[in-house]
Amino acid sequence: MINFSFMPKIIRTLLLNSWKVMWVVLADDAIEFYKKKTDNSPKGMIPLKGATLTSPCQDFTKRMLVFKVRSAKNQEHFFQATHLEERELWVKDIKRAITCLQGGKKFARKSTRRSIRLPENVNLSELYVLMKDQDKGVKELKVEKDKRLFNHCFTGNTVIDWLISERKARNRPEGLMLATGLLNEGFLLPAGDVSKDGAEKGAECVFLDQTEALYYFADSGFFCEGYSSDEDVIMKEEFRGAIVKQGCLLKQGHRRKNWKVRKFILRDDPAYIHYYDPTKGENDPLGSIHLRGSVVTAVEYVPDAKRYEVDGNLFEIITSDEIHYYLQAATADERKDWIKAIQSVSKTGK
């Protein structure tokens, strides 16, 4: 079983008959969805043998980034991603799984090691952690290309240069083999047309050692945005800061004390974090938190949280005005990353 979900997904199925936030897992022959990541048994399963996939799906005019999976029994299941790159990644892998099943095989990305002759002693997880090191790892950049701005990304040749400089590879062909392994295992993801074309060429993704090929870390704050040539457009002051991190978290409401999934975007200079309904885009935030002078810490429990079962990976933001916000991340590492990023912004941003 392979979990491709880096964050909760919005899902609508015949079993649920409404839109719900679920934890989705792509197995070798089915899509499974769980109420929580920590659940042992799925709430439902969609067999992929004989299934078809439609993307983009236009069945819901008020919802963006939706794709549809129709099972062999003509049951329709709808999924909504939080951003375009996430939807493309899921669509690509589900299509590959369906194709494998049509050929009498089970979908398994872990065969990548054998297909590219990756040595057994190479630990891609450890290599990925080293690459993400803020001081010695691959530097994330802003790249402007084709009237789009790619944030938190890097070029293909930069990855190969780093692997050689850190003595993880002896030469460029060997570095290319390692980078291809990272790409096929989902540690690195393609951004932009050039790298995506390379990833789609064959049964396995192909990493490109090129300055034109852009990639990003799977759990980074990557996003791509278009921009206007009109220099007279004036943004609100709180939106002027560079985006440091973004992703989905559970947030406790201030009035009803219930918990809902919100998409958070963290900016610095000025230091703000905005949160949105992940089903409605990023034009109108539901709220914002001014982080200058705030305190953020991990917590073990949340007051008034009896109505909803929340356990683990909790943290609290206390603003300079002494307003308390309680949030929950999907994993302990994700909580640690959010706390570190918010602490940094609250100290340096105005």
From TrEMBL:
Q: Which Pfam families match?
A: DEP (PF00610), PH (PF00169)
Known InterPro entries for this protein?
DEP_dom, PH-like_dom_sf, PH_domain, Pleckstrin, WH-like_DNA-bd_sf, WH_DNA-bd_sf
Q: Which PROSITE patterns match?
A: DEP, PH_DOMAIN
Query: Residue limits of the PH domain?
Result: 1-99, 242-347
Q: Does the keyword Transmembrane apply?
A: no
A GO CC annotation recorded here is:
plasma membrane
Per the record, the GO terms for biological process are: actin cytoskeleton organization; intracellular signal transduction
List the source organism: Cyprinus carpio
**Name used for this protein in its record:** Pleckstrin
* Top-level taxon: Eukaryota
Its keywords, alphabetically, are:
Acetylation, Phosphoprotein, Repeat, Signal
- DEP domain: which residues? 134-219
* Annotated SUPFAM superfamilies: PH domain-like, Winged helix' DNA-binding domain
What is the residue range of the signal peptide feature? 1-27
PANTHER family in UniProt: PLECKSTRIN (PTHR12092:SF1)
